[in-house]
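Sanity check

After download, print the first record. It should look like this:
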Amino acid sequence: CLLTLGRFVVGKDSGSGVRELKSLAHLQGRLKISKLENVKDVGDACEAQLNNKVNLEALSLEWSARSERCEFENVLSMLKPHRDVQELTITGYGGIKFPSWLGDSSFSKLASLELRRCTSTFLPSVGQLPFLKELDISGMDGVKSVGSEFYRSSCSVPFPSLETLSFSDMREWEEWIPCGAGQEVDEVFPKLRKLSLFNCYKLQGTLPKRLLLLEKLVIKSCHQLLVTIQCLPALRELQM
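Expected structure tokens:
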């Protein structure tokens, strides 16, 4: 009948594995699962049954070390939360790609997503999350280009509800294609109000040209970025 468990540290010994979360069906509020590198059996991750914990509002999944024995992609695939989760943070993920559930539009209440120090060379396709308002991406040094895979090209408008977008410590990021295939420039980020770029040393080109609701623009240590403000009618604060 446990309701609150702020942090669960995955251990290596019997009785401390992630499968112990299975019986905690009534967990609510926030849960952080750390030391996920200790998950050696994908079946343990499946047994955790996070997708059945309907009252969890915020979930944080954290790997703190790299391990050749850790099956990053399979483990994260099995740690899919319930579709009503509102906040999700993934830290230290070492897989080549993210599971498809991460950008699934059925996550209709997901409002905040943070990706920290993940080694994937591509960003997940999260452009179709209907109510995503905050997106924070940091320390993903494997990413060199952000393009159509980020928006997930379709008939619908990418990032229809996004208000805050932040990229930081993207040391190898070189190219930002501001719209997906078949999308006009002004059909991307229609509600974006704050855009922050920190320590993106190699990022070239320019910004999306029509951000009609953007109120705050912050750019620091992006030495090769060309900033051409063409249509930012709502801009109130500029930091460079």
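If your output differs, re-run the checksum step. Summary of this record's structure: Helices lie at 42-47, 72-78, 148-151.
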